[in-house]
Specification:
alpha+beta, six-stranded antiparallel beta sheet, 11 strands, globular
Length: about 240
């Protein structure tokens, strides 16, 4: 396996509210996490850091996640605990009203690959040299598309395309959407919307399937391309590939 993760503040934002990591535990199981924080007075990075650091520590402290059902329960239990911690932080700190974060996670073991998400950070896989989006964004425009009130093309330029319907810290209960993913996938990529709002899936795919680039070079190139197009938001990417096993 080859793994690489990076975060960049972009060209517009004065600070970075994203958090990202890739971890491997004692059983050679992998956890990838990307969180995109939100909230006033620079508290977005607090929420995203809580999500990534807490989930990461619990993963490192777990010798093996267990079965697929165990993994789903582990993710949901921990995400709910993290959600409570973010809510409590907001209650204790009056300048943190609106504190919250998206989260997208992936768990890879010898027997299964699952994704989970809340918000509009995205999870993808590469299979047969094609990029496939696994997760579904919890946004207002996606609800409108599902209801038949917007086309997908209209959604891309809608003025409220970034309005979230779900996030950690937004309500008392947090539940991940869970996706059971094909184990034959060649690579995993998680990212914040700072990537997907600046590059099309075709542009992302072109970089990720470039056999002349190493994992780190692919991630660096994607961030560079976002910034070349304006870098309107923080950009975070977690990338894991089987090439070079």
């Amino acid at each position: 396996m080859k793994a690489c993760y990076m975060t960049d503040s972009g060209r517009v934002r004065s600070h970075n509210e994203d958090s990202v990591t890739i971890l491997k535990n004692a059983s050679d199981e992998y956890l990838l996490i990307v969180a995109d924080g939100m909230g006033g007075h620079r508290k977005g990075e607090v929420a995203s850091s809580i999500a990534v650091s807490r989930l990461g520590k619990r993963f490192n402290d777990t010798p093996s996640i267990g079965s697929k059902l165990d993994a789903v329960n582990w993710l949901n239990d921990n995400i709910n605990e993290i959600n409570k911690e973010i809510l409590e932080y907001g209650e204790r700190n009056v300048d943190s009203k609106g504190l919250g974060t998206t989260v997208v996670v992936s768990l890879l073991t010898k027997n299964y690959l699952i994704f989970g998400n809340i918000g509009d950070s995205s999870g993808f896989v590469i299979k047969n040299n094609k990029l496939h989006k696994v997760t579904k964004d919890h946004t207002l425009v996606n609800l409108l598309v599902d209801a038949g009130n917007l086309t997908e093309d209209e959604a891309k330029t809608h003025p409220k395309k970034n309005v979230l319907m779900k996030a950690l810290g937004a309500s008392e209960k947090a539940e991940l959407d869970i996706f059971d993913v094909d184990m034959e996938s060649e690579a995993i990529m998680l990212c914040s919307d700072g990537l997907t709002n600046m590059l099309t899936e075709e542009q992302i795919e072109k970089v990720l399937i470039d056999e002349e680039l190493e994992a780190e070079e692919k991630v660096e190139k994607l961030i560079m391309k976002c910034n070349a197009r304006g870098g309107n938001d923080n950009i975070s990417i977690a990338y894991l590939t089987r090439n070079g096993e």
